[in-house]
Amino acid sequence: RKEVEQDPGPFNVPEGATVAFNCTYSNSASQSFFWYRQDCRKEPKLLMSVYSSGNEDGRFTAQLNRASQYISLLIRDSKLSDSATYLCVVRQGNKLVFGAGTILRVKS
Amino acid sequence: DAGITQSPRYKITETGRQVTLMCHQTWSHSYMFWYRQDLGHGLRLIYYSAAADITDKGEVPDGYVVSRSKTENFPLTLESATRSQTSVYFCASSEFGTSGRVAFAGELFFGEGSRLTVL
Q1: Structural contact between residues A85 and A35, judged by C-beta atoms closer than 8 angstroms
Q2: Partner-chain residue, chosen from B35, B42, B108, that has the shortest CB–CB distance to A100
Q3: How many CB pairs lie under 8 A apart between chains A and B?
Q4: Positions in chain A short of pLDDT 70
Q5: Using CB atoms within 10 A of its CB, is residue B95 exposed (0-12), middle (13-18) or buried (19+)?
Q6: For B72, phi and psi rounded to 5 degrees?
Q7: Minimum-distance CB partner of B106 among A32, A43, A99
Q8: Model confidence at B27: pLDDT above 90
Q9: Beta strands in chain A (DSSP E)
Q10: Rounded CA separation B21/A13 (Å)
Q11: What integer pLDDT is reported at residue B88 of this predicted model?
């Protein structure tokens, strides 16, 4: 079993749609959680950290469920520019473990 | 300009040759990392370094060697390249935690990647 698992997608959604991604992690001792975004053939960049109480940044909402060991990312009012691969990232000790990513395609 | 740079950006080599990928950062971040990215696997950690002269293995270290004689540089060497090492390699750096413990915020700053093809 992979340490961090994501549905690879692709998720094909129209502009304005709401879309949600889930990510599960296997190590219950994982300490911190993040969502990164990676555009095609580019380097990953931090989208947002995920806090226990849940957090929101504009159209993006991240939630953490430690009991079930999953993280979610909700994107509201999808834009064409949201098309990218979204990487779930889990910190274990002094290492960051990446999921394989979920592809999002927003179409007009 | 401040940042993290990798070179070369593209490299084609042959099986058995030695290849070195360079990584340089100007932020004086303590931590530096090398990842490889392959379809279906996502980013996998090869090696990381907590400071100059301190390195440690990641998930897939076999066939790779790293060094860190200076804080700003973290070269990755493939001693005898194999076709399975064809990949996109990303170097990253991160700030050391202010608590003084081995911890960091979690934001990795990545270089643009080095695309390596081994024929």
Answers
A1: no
A2: B42
A3: 51
A4: none
A5: middle
A6: -85, -15
A7: A32
A8: no
A9: 4-6, 11-14, 19-25, 32-38, 45-50, 55-57, 60-65, 70-75, 84-92, 95-98, 102-107
A10: 38
A11: 97
* Cα–Cα distance, A27 to A24 (Å, whole number): 10
A2: CB partners within 8 A, 6+ apart: A26, A99, A100
Distance spanning both ends of chain A, measured CA to CA = 37
Find out whether B112 and B9 touch, Cβ atoms under 8 Å: yes
Q: Indicate yes or no: CB of A98 within 8 angstroms of CB of B35.
A: yes
Look up residue B15 and give its two tokens.
Answer: 């099986």
Q: What is the CA radius of gyration of chain B?
A: 14
How far apart are the C-alpha atoms of A22 and A75, rounded to whole Å?
12
3-state secondary structure of A82: helix
CA of residue A76 relative to chain centroid, distance: 14
Please check whether residue B8 is in contact with residue B114, taking contact to mean a CB–CB distance below 8 angstroms.
Answer: yes
Q: Where in B8-119 does DSSP place strands (E)?
A: 10-13, 19-25, 31-38, 42-51, 54-57, 64-66, 76-78, 87-94, 109-110, 114-118
- Angstrom distance (rounded) from CA B71 to CA A87: 28
**Residue A23, CA atoms < 13 Å, CB-side half-sphere:** 28
Output the CA–CA distances (angstroms, integers) from residue B24 to A73, B43, B52, B112, in the order listed. Answer: 32, 20, 13, 12
DSSP three-state, residue B23: strand
Cβ of A91 within 8 Å of Cβ of B106? The answer is yes
pLDDT digits (tens, 9 = 90+) for B41-88: 889 999 999 889 999 999 899 999 999 999 999 999 999 999 999 999
